[in-house]
């Protein structure tokens, strides 16, 4: 077999996720449907989350984990309606980046290509879990993902999120209503950090943002990170995380 | 942290609320927690918006119509019970709920506390646990010695230099124009109008210049790290190679179909002022051609990258070539430098030029993205 053929077989072999699956027989109650949405614009996923949260609060629907990668956008937390920018708003508009107000906590942040965004719509009551516990779980999921790439992620006194050697690599933002969560965590895999320079991320002027690619020193595939995220999410929360196919929507390619 | 902020009361003091209606938002560390009314009634605020409350505090109460807040001692007793319930180890599930559930036990009229505060937001997270995944760990080890995991093939070569003879192209254009004049006698007007528009545009066109600061030190590091993936058996890439490729990519992303590029690296033994002032005159061209040693003719380049980095010139404004685009690479002290772009205003506006340059900077400093 040629090397290329071998590589293809290795990637597509049955049970390629086999070592990543976790036994969750002891927790039949916890399961989460995972959707990998590919590249999306912020607005559509935001609406989808609102619908899912409303359904979950009404008692229907299932716990859902949405994984996606947004087109460039700045989002504002509910309590900080004025964008905390380092440049005038004109410049942001010149870059063609929208500023979207949301209902989550926290201050301004950036989403863009190369950033894995995970939104959990989870009924915490059903999981017997508090909000802090859930956020810590999200952070631990990311710490596990980073460990897969040989990075040591840690929590910091400076705020929620995951940090690598004092640089912020993942940010948390959450909205909980009726004990159903919405929004989640954003992990910089190979994000264009230039866009972060336009804002004071999370309202902190001196925070340095980094990406997995920059820390590892080579390119990191977002799909692999997403796969690892699903695995670690299942491990940390001890739930069956099952990737669902999305009918009528093939996964979007990274637009380069 | 020991508490949370009462960020906003959605419903005013004394407003009628229905069960399930959001009445209040707590915030703490990027978490917005919306509290919903547990029963119908009249909302009475106990704590104002903007106050920071500790874990287990009662923020407000839902009472029946015509009633005020219950006496403060009663609520304080409730708070104490709620806090005790939170701290009790027997409540691992729904810790936040614990405080809420105490409220309906209030005797008499109030049907339930609206909010029991900054309850479980206040818990410190468990210590960080790093569990390395075996398969990844093995792979990282394999990659540690050299670059055992090869990157994908670098996408496409830098557009090659030879494209067409300028003389031929102009002759062909002339011939086409003549043909058009012959058989297009019926509609000479649109052609002349287009020509007029083009003339006007050309008359108002100006040469603009923009520059961006880059860290060549970072670029050099990255180029060294990438050299194996770039040309496994070939020459090591220099930062100039990197810059040309980054510029080509940024131009392509900006929708500009950039043709062949010319690269001029001026070495210390060359005449510096000569290179800056007359980059495209005959003699210089011959010199560059000699340097390129038959690798393609410099005059066919549509855009030019001139590097004066070996000379230590910090900022260089190259002359525009015939191709309406020229880039200058300059290096200053401590690995810092600039990339300057001289462009024709007919190519793009200043905002777009800034965007292109920002992208070039980002690609030069993080060349992994070139293969992303």
Structure description:
The complex is a heterodimer of chains A (256) and B (372). Chain A has seven helices and 13 strands. Chain A is of the alpha+beta class and 256 residues long. In chain A, the strands form three sheets. Chain A has an eight-stranded mixed sheet with strand order 7-8-9-12-6-2-1-13, sandwiched between helices. Chain A has a three-stranded mixed sheet with strand order 4-3-5, with no helix packed on it. A two-stranded antiparallel sheet of chain A has the order 10-11. In chain A, strand 8 (159-164) and strand 9 form a beta hairpin. Residues 14-27 of chain A have low confidence and may be disordered. Chain B contains ten helices and twelve strands. In chain B, the strands form two sheets. In chain B, strands 1, 2, 3, 4, 5, 6 and 7 form a seven-stranded antiparallel sheet that branches. The model of chain B is unreliable at 88-167, 183-189, 270-281 and 291-298 (pLDDT under 50). At the A-B interface, helix 5, strand 8, strand 10 and helix 7 of A face strand 1, strand 3, strand 4, helix 2 and helix 3 of B.
């Amino acid at each position: 077999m040629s090397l290329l053929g071998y590589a293809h077989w290795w990637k597509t072999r049955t049970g390629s996720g086999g070592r990543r699956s976790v036994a969750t027989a002891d927790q039949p109650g916890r399961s989460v449907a995972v959707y990998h949405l590919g590249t999306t614009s912020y607005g559509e996923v935001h609406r989808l989350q609102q619908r899912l949260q409303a359904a979950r609060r009404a008692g229907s629907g299932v716990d859902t984990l949405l994984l996606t990668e947004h087109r460039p956008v700045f989002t504002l937390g509910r309590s900080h309606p004025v964008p905390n920018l380092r440049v005038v708003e004109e410049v942001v508009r010149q870059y063609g980046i929208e500023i979207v107000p949301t209902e989550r906590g926290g201050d301004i942040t950036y989403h863009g290509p190369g950033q894995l965004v995970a939104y959990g719509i989870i009924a915490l009551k059903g999981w017997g879990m508090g909000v802090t516990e859930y956020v810590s779980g999200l952070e631990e999921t990311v710490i596990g993902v980073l460990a897969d790439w040989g990075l040591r992620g840690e929590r910091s006194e400076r705020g929620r999120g995951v940090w690598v050697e004092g640089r912020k690599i993942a940010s948390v933002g959450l909205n909980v209503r009726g004990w159903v969560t919405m929004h989640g965590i954003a992990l910089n895999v190979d994000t264009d950090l230039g866009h972060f320079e336009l804002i004071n991320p999370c309202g902190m002027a001196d925070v340095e943002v980094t990406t997995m690619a920059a820390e590892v020193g080579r390119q990191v595939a977002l799909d692999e990170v997403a796969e690892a995220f699903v695995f670690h999410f299942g491990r940390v929360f001890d739930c069956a995380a099952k990737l669902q196919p999305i009918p009528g929507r093939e996964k979007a390619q990274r637009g380069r | 942290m020991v508490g949370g902020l009462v960020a906003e009361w959605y419903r005013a003091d004394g407003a009628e609320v229905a069960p399930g209606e959001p009445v209040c938002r707590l915030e703490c560390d990027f978490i917005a927690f919306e509290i919903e009314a547990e029963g119908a009634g009249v909302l009475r605020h106990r704590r104002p918006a903007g106050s920071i409350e500790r874990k287990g505090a009662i923020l407000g109460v839902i009472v029946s119509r015509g009633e005020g807040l219950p006496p403060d001692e009663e609520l304080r007793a409730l708070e104490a019970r709620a806090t005790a319930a939170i701290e009790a180890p027997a409540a691992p599930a729904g810790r936040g709920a614990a405080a809420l559930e105490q409220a309906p036990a209030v005797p008499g009229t109030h049907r339930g506390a609206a909010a029991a505060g900054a309850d479980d937001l206040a818990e410190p997270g468990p210590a960080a646990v790093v569990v390395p995944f075996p398969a990844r760990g093995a792979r990282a080890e394999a990659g540690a010695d050299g670059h055992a995991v090869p990157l994908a093939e670098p996408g496409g070569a830098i557009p090659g230099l030879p494209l067409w003879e300028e003389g031929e192209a102009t002759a062909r254009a002339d011939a086409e124009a003549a043909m058009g004049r012959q058989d297009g006698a019926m509609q000479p007007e649109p052609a002349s109008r287009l020509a007029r528009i083009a003339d006007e545009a050309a008359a108002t066109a100006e040469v603009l210049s923009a520059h961006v600061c880059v860290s060549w030190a970072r670029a050099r590091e990255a180029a060294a790290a990438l050299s194996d993936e770039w040309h496994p058996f070939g020459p090591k890439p220099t930062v100039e190679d990197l810059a040309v490729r980054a510029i080509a990519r940024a131009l392509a992303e900006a929708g500009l179909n950039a043709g062949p590029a010319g690269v001029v690296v001026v070495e210390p033994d060359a005449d510096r002022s000569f290179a800056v002032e007359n980059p495209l005159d005959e003699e210089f061209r011959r010199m560059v051609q000699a340097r390129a040693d038959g690798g393609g003719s410099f005059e066919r380049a549509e855009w030019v990258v001139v590097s004066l980095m070996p000379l230590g010139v910090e900022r260089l404004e190259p002359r525009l070539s015939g191709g309406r685009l020229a880039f200058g690479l300059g290096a200053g002290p401590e690995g810092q430098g600039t990339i300057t772009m001289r462009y024709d205003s007919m190519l793009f506006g200043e905002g777009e030029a800034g965007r292109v340059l920002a992208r070039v900077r980002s690609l030069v400093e993080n060349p992994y993205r070139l293969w992303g």
